[in-house]
Amino acid sequence: MRISTKLPLAATLFALVILSASVTIGLVQQSRILDEQVYQKLEATADGRRNEARRFLEAIQLDARATASDMMTQQALFGITGAWPKLGDNPAAELQKRYIDDNPSPIGEKYNLDSAKKDSYDRAHRQGHTTFLKHLQAQGYYDIFLIDVDGNIVYTVQKERDFGTNLISGPYKDTGLGKVFRKASESDDPAVFANSDFEAYEPSAGDPAAFVAVPIIMNERKLGVLAYQLPNDQLNSIFANTRGLGTTGETVLVDRAGLLVSDSPRTADMDSLRVSMSAPLLTDAINGQDGSGDIEGYRGMSSHAAVVPLDFGDVRWAVVALMGEDEILAQVWSAGLKSLGIGAILVLVGSLVGFVFSRSLTRPISELVTSMGQLADGNTNIDLKGIDRSDEIGDMVRSVAVFRQAEIDKRELEAENESRRTATESERHQREAERAAAQAELTEAIEVLGTGLQRLANGDLTATIRKPLVGNLDRLRLDFNTSLERLSATVASVHGNVAEINRKSGTVSSATADLSHRTEQQAAALVETSTAIRQIMEAIRHSSERAENASKLAREARANSDRSGEIVGGAVDAMSRIEQASSEISKIINVIDEIAFQTNLLALNAGVEAARAGEAGKGFAVVAQEVRELAQRSATAAKDIKSLITKSGQEVSNGVGLVRETGTVLSSIAGQVVQIGDHIHSIASTSKQQSASLNEINDAVARMENVTQQNARAAEQTNTEMAGLTRDAEMLSGLVGQFTVEAGASTLQNRFADQRDTGFSRPTQPPISQPAPAAAKPATRSFLKPKVAPAEAGNRAVASPARSLMDKISIGLGAKLTQAKDSKSDGEWEEF
After folding, report:
1. Residues in domain HAMP (predicted)?
2. Average pLDDT over every residue of 112-135
């Protein structure tokens, strides 16, 4: 297939693939975005419905509390409960007969009868019924109940079959109404609020019903309970709003069992407490968590849903906002078809553009192929179109133009070469003769130099070339002779230096071995020093711990002493109060004594008067005598008590003195304990400081020990390297001995040695010595002094720093450690 066909086809396929991929990615992305938007809308809708329902329910709660606290409600319940006993043995049957069976209004309108006009109950009923009926119609409640403290439903607005029954023992005790009554009546909290979940309620023809209840309290006395039956229609109207949810979306209220509480606006049947839905989302919402996901099976479809919990009093429901997946997929397919239509148009336009563009590329290429075929046939007069273009086709045309010019130049060059070939043949023969002569001279020079190099390879450094060479080749001979002379002088110098290195290596090796031995001894001394310091540190640590324990005991003794002082002070105060009480008792005893004295006088006077009365006053005289004797006994007892109290006061005074002396002694002991504690604390602080100092000293000794060990290892390594250096020098000496040098090389060798001894480096171009006989020996040279000289007799012995350190430690701790005297000879090196 030609490129003119491939390019349009490739452009069309490329556009088709790119646009198909773009449409597919767009559909997937749009589907994902649409799902996110649907979930966001559902979450916002569910939250909005929850807020509406919560405001509605909270308004019911506030209204119930306000109605229960209203004076009219309290008076109505008070009047009705006062007339309740007059209804006979079966109040429920009597009330249902009056207001339900004999009520001329149809079912559902029984509230139109405000009074049966029979007794005081009917009069009380009429007074409150009008107000409660207006309130029910204004708020939209299904029913309003008044219940006394015994559980009797004494009043309702709707007059259903629960009217007059008892919620403790009656048929409806287990209903939601009975549950909220019991909670509201059993609590003593005036702010208590009870509510129930929706369930089928038999008196309301089995329709769903939920109840709220609050207590009615007047003058801190509980009269009964006010209860509302919630209006289902208003809840249904809240959740019937389907704005923004398409044709399948809705919001519903679901209880813990998964049953619908509100009626679905998308179905014609009654769904409340009859239709259920199940999904993990509902369980999460009942547990108090928001959620979103899919719900299967509800209304026979799969739905996207968002669920939020709704709490009201003791009940928790789930608000569910959902939308059918088919409706969402329909929107996606609609958007996809639009995208496919637009993509098809774009593919067609892209194909046309590709065809036109490919033709603009293939037409010049076809023309260029034709021109290249003509050029290949030898036609250099071809017409190249597009040579001025700036694109790749222009580059191709210019390349073909280069080929054409190259063909033209080739033909001209072939013609010129043919004319020159005949003229240069004679010149070639002449140049060949000249090259043969030069080659012969070069061969001779190579043979002479080869001979000299062969002698040099055999170690003969006297193999200079005496015969001059032809022309410029003689420069090679002179350079060879100069290099040979310099090499001879260098080898002679190396031979002398090798001997000197051997001698110095032996000296350094001996000194290094001595240094290694002494370093090992110093390391052993440092190890012993470190061990002793650690033992001292351990002893100081134990002393510091004991000092700290003693300080702690001293502080506790001081605290106990202070506490004892406080107790003694309290005892002194108590005894002072006992002393004051004794004084008060003494005063009371004095009063008793005076009363006894006065009683005695009165009894005496009574006896005198009885004696005057004669026979009639005998009995009174006996009584007076008895009273007198009692007064005397009281006086005697008062004197005895006074004596005992006086004696007790003296003992208390003595006890107070003794306790005060005890307090003084304890204060003195407390002061001494404080001083002891201060001394012990000072000792503990000093021990801690000594321990810290020894830690630092131990660290320093450890570092010195490490350095000494490193020095020992370095000395051993140096000794090993010097042995190796000696062996290398011997090998070098053997290698240098293979060379034969001239006698004049010794002068240059001595000059190098002198320069080394004086610290100067040898010159870059040493002077060339004159040839000398090979048997001449190198002159004697001087050597450099070794960098590490052995110890001499004049060196002084220096005491070990580690031993000095141990002396300082001993002085700081107050104990003198046993030292070994430094008995080293004067010839030994300094330790450490």
Report:
1. 359-412, 440-492
2. 91
